[in-house]
Recover the amino acids of this structure.
């Protein structure tokens, strides 16, 4: 096996966010423990890697102004663009924006008010197979 060949399969240039080739997705309305509320919301993503056992996913996601309500599966995130105000059920509001790096353990609940379209890189590690 040629390690370089395998590696290049997962390389994605994110320097030009407008040139990202993301696939439009239907809005989750309760699937995967997530609901996105809003009208004509831009939602698109691309998986760079999904493990055979569906417990690890790496990808890029874009979500336009809306409200996201859900429970994290165990995610590491890096925001490339946008701004989000987050409201945990029993905590203080906080903001995520371009340049922020965050980790959310499994089971963390949050409401995100997406004020500016965000683009984020994500890595999800799950104890159980992911639902997508």
């Amino acid at each position: 096996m040629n390690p370089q060949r395998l590696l290049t399969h997962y390389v994605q240039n994110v320097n030009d966010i407008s040139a990202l080739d993301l696939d439009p997705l239907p809005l989750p309305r309760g699937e995967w423990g997530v609901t996105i509320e809003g009208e004509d919301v831009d939602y698109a993503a691309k998986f760079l890697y999904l493990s055979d056992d569906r417990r690890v996913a790496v990808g890029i996601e874009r979500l336009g102004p809306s409200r996201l309500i859900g429970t994290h599966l165990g995610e590491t995130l890096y925001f490339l663009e946008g701004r989000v105000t987050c409201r945990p059920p029993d905590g203080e509001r906080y903001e995520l924006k371009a340049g922020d790096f965050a980790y959310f353990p499994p089971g963390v609940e949050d409401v995100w008010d997406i004020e500016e379209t965000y683009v984020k890189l994500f890595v999800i590690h799950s104890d159980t197979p992911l639902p997508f």
User: Anything to note?
Assistant: Residues 1-6 have pLDDT under 50 and may be disordered. Strands lie at 23-24, 34-37, 43-50, 56-63, 66-71, 75-87, 94-97, 101-104, 109-125. The longest strand covers residues 109-125. The chain has one helix and nine strands.
